[in-house]
Specification:
Helix content: over 70%
Distance between the termini: 15 Å
Radius of gyration: 23 Å
Largest sheet: none
Order of helices and strands: HHH
Number of domains: 1
Structural class: mainly alpha
Length: 101
């Protein structure tokens, strides 16, 4: 499972891990609980962002399909504008797919 940590969470995790390493032979349950909480929040954030990006990609694919259909059915004097709309839709899809990586 992947995580998306905020800068503050990264710092707090590093501090907790260092503190846990110092107390490796002592009771680290509180540190482990806090690390687990941070990981759960980061995992939830990652999943939400992933679903949002998937929705954007689906929407961009629908827009591209509509733009291609409009380009094919456009009259000759409207074809240039329809071609530009298709290119814009392709760019939006490309940007959405790149953001998901």
């Amino acid at each position: 499972m992947s995580h998306t940590y905020t800068p503050g969470e990264k710092v707090k995790r590093a501090r907790l891990l260092a503190k846990g390493a110092k107390n490796a032979y002592g009771d680290t349950s509180a540190i482990d609980l806090e690390l687990d909480r941070i990981d759960r929040v980061a995992t939830d954030r990652y999943e939400r962002e992933r679903r949002a990006l998937d929705r954007q990609i689906d929407q961009a694919k629908d827009e591209l399909a509509a733009a291609k259909a409009a380009e094919r059915s456009a009259r000759p004097e409207e074809r240039q504008r329809a071609k530009q709309a298709r290119r814009d839709a392709e760019d939006r899809l490309r940007r959405a797919e790149r953001a998901r990586r």
